[in-house]
Structure prediction request, 214 residues.
Amino acid sequence: MSADAGTNVSMFLQSIHAISSPDDCSAIYDRWAKTYDIDVRHAGVDYVAPTVTAEAVVAANGNIAGSILDAGCGTGLVGVALSQAGAKNIDGIDISSGMLDVARRTGIYKDLSVVDMSVVIDKRDQSYDVITCVGTFTEAHVSPIPAFRELVRIVKRDGLVVATVSDDVWVSGGYKAEVERLGAVGAVDILSTATVEYRRGTNKRARMVVLKRK
Prediction:
């Protein structure tokens, strides 16, 4: 990869951690969509979170053959990893129409729609067996409230929510507190909040939050 390409990746990585609004978020990812997959697989990024998340779904005995929502699906890297694990019934939502255009070309998703996860999600209660959310709970992106509560609402009873949360904001961003609250009120069993690799090339790590709805 050229030096110019590497600089381009660095610029986008800096930009996504300085997002100030949902409109700003969609605009930045729309601009990045065409080169995103190449950029995050190379240039010292090595974005392994999608594969690690699919592995976490399987390890937690998630219903990989059931209905799956890939929340914050981006260009479809998580969907591809889930498909390789055997999933065939995947929907995706994301704030960026540009990223969804790329995801659509994977041919993996049954339905893709533009959704702002910082507000109530337009999905019925208990719609999915598994919900994944990767790369969304991070700096300057989607806050834990109401997003975690919404994901739990739309997963089926005994279904799984499997989500990465950047280690940098796990405590300071209120994610740990919201996950613990959902456990305390009896909404979920907290199966894991283990620290995992996220972007190997930049030594960035995340919590792998695995929740089972009661």
Q: What stands out?
A: The first helix runs from residue 3 to 16.
